[in-house]
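User: Can you predict the 3D structure for this chain?
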Amino acid sequence: MTGVIAHASTMTYNHRENRNNSIAIKIIVKTVSIRNLEMASAETMTDVILETMMIGATT
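Assistant: Here is the predicted structure, written as structure tokens:
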């Protein structure tokens, strides 16, 4: 899961002028986070939340 989110962060940074792309990535990251919520440890979820906040900051 962390690999997916790191890739999404890179894509958002490289294409931050394309707001539609950034929004789509946010939706994907949030969907992945929700689907893996039961399986993820508290530490992993903290990483997910921090990455999601970072993606928001780059838009």
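The CA atoms of residues 26 and 52 lie 7 Å apart. Residues 2-58 form one domain.
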